Amino acid sequence: MKRNEVVDFLKKHRLDSLDGDEIMRSRSPQVIDVQGRPVFLFDLAFDIHDSLISDSISISQQPHNMPIPLHMHDYIEMMFVYRGSCRIVIKERERLLNEGDLIMIEQWTPHSVKAATEQDIVINIIMKRDFLSPSFLSRLTRQSIISRFMLDSVIDNRQHHRFLIFRPGLDSPVIDVMEQIMCEFFDRDLYSGKIIDSFLVALFSMLIRSSSLPTGESMEVSPNGEGLLIEFLQYIEENYKDCSLAKMGSRFGFHPNYLSSLLKKGTGKSFKELLQIQRLNQAALFLSNSNMTIPDIAEEVGYSSLTFFYKKFKEMFEATPYHYRKFHQQQI
To answer: What residue ranges are annotated as transmembrane (predicted)?
Structure first.
C-alpha cells in the first residue's frame, strides 16, 4: 500500500453499521467502580474489521456514529486524528483533538469518546505491555526527562490516570510517519513488524521534539494547569543548569508551591528529583561524547559540590563518572 492510498482504504473499511448496544451486549465487558463511577473494562483488541485479535499491537479506526462509553483498558492507547476532529472526555473534561493531533492514554485511565462523523478518520493504536518490551524501550532515548516520563508511564503498574496530548501541526513529519505505520500494518509484508517498531520509535522521538511551543504562541491552559505537564518538563530540560521553581512559576503564571504540587501529581517525582534527573542525564552525555574533565562537567550541569555530584551520579547510574565514561567511550 502506498501512502496516497491510505485515506481510500480507511474509507472503504470504515465501520458505519455497528450497533453500539448490541456490541456491548455481545461482549459483556466487566464493569469496575472507579471513584464512585461505573467504568467498562475493555481488555480485548479488535482490528479494522472489528475482529478479535491477540496481537501485541493493533491499529483500528474509530467507528462512525457510535459514541464510546466511559471505559478503560489494560494497555496503552494512542488516538491519532488523521482527518476531521475527535472529542474525548477524560478527567471529566472534554478535550477537542483536531486534524494532526494525537493523544496517548495510560492504561487504567477512564475516558469516553464522542461519536465520530463521516468526515472524521480517527486512528486507534493499542500497545500491550508485551509489545513494549525492554528491547523496544531501550531504543528510545533516555537522555530526556520527557522520554523518561513516557517510559515510566509504560512500566509503572500504579494507576495514575495520566495522558499526554500532542499538537505537532499539520506540517509536522508526524503525519508522514503515521501514514507509513498504517501502510505497513494494513498491507503486511516481509519485515513489516520490525519496520513498524522502527517507525514507532521515530514517532515517539518526534513527539518529544515537537512538545515545546513556538515562542509567542499561546498555550492551551486550563484553570488548574492541567495539560501543561509536557511544557513543564520541556522547560526543565532546556533550563536545567539554573532552573528554579520561582523562575518556572513566573514563566507559567503559577505559585511555586502549586507548580511543585502539579509536577509531583503528574510525574510522581518532585521538582528537585526531575531537575536532578535532567542534570545527571546531561552529565552522562558529556562523559560519553566529550573530553571535558569531570569537575568541569559537574559545574557545567549545575553542581557546585563535586562530592554531591559523584554521590548522585553513582546512585542513578550505578557507576562513578570515571567508570561510566570509560565503559561508554569503549563502546564507540
So the answer is: none
